[in-house]
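Entry for the shared binder. Reason: the reviewer on the internal report wants the predicted structure included alongside the sequence.
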Amino acid sequence: MIEFAVIMAMASPDHKSELTYNRPPAMLPALGKPLVVRIMERLYRAGIHKFVVVLGAQEGGVASYLNTSWLPDVEMEFVLKTGDTPIAHILSQIARQYRQPFVFSTYNHFTHSRFAEHLLSDKNAHTDQLVLGCTGTTLSKTMPSHYVCVDEEDCVVAISNRMPEDASCLILSELAICGMQFVDYLAGLTESSAYFAMQFADLCKQYLETGAAISAAETAWTLPIKVDADLLTLNKQLLEHEQDAHILSELTGSVQIVPPVRIDPQVSVGKGAQIGPYVYLERGCSIGENVMLRNVLVMQKSRIAPNEIVTDAIVSTRMTMQV
């Protein structure tokens, strides 16, 4: 039985964003909630109520939000990643401290909303092996970082950062079950080991090369948030498939809403505005009269002038970004 998850909530080197000037990357909006909370809620629904959250020096806002605004029945521990401390070093420390299997996830790598429950099903949750989430489809605007090749029994036979020619290869996600064999491997890493220069996927590759068994669990799609266009795609996915497409601010009768739309509390929308489909208005933004919005994310404190037409864009206080 897996009882806790390790969440990498510090800024990812693969996440390039122009929207993090006033908040950490993990706190970017995912339909009313920060990215990291969306990830953790999926694991919570799958039965995980204990989290070890790894933060960088600039992610104090993440800890504050989780301590004050999230679920009361969750046990939380925070680990600080300082400077260039490798992920492998942190995972090794966690493995030595807990000596039990755990779920690994990053704050910015999304899969189908029910995949965490599938991954934590009886078949996978009771295995001693490392189980890697993977898929044949990415919704991201960027190329995948790593691939896995699997055999007919869903055993991983290769991990690569280049697209292999083998048709049986899949895209690696950053959601995994770290079974007891892998936990023991992590706990045995030493300070002088070359493994400490590696990211999680590279660490998994080196583990595979020791002859260890790794299994693969397939999901319908993956969406790593690597560029800002991916954030708009994620919010569109959430509007389509989650239950949070709500209108939480008071609107005049002349405002036209074309679902799906989410409007946070404390949003001002002018008369005659046409909102939707696929629009998310974050708390504190302001929409002028007769504005038309379609497939748009408007971030907190942003303003759209009257009579503007905005489509396929992210609007922040600094820019309107066409995606």
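Summary line for the report: Residues 31 and 243 are 10 Å apart (CA to CA).
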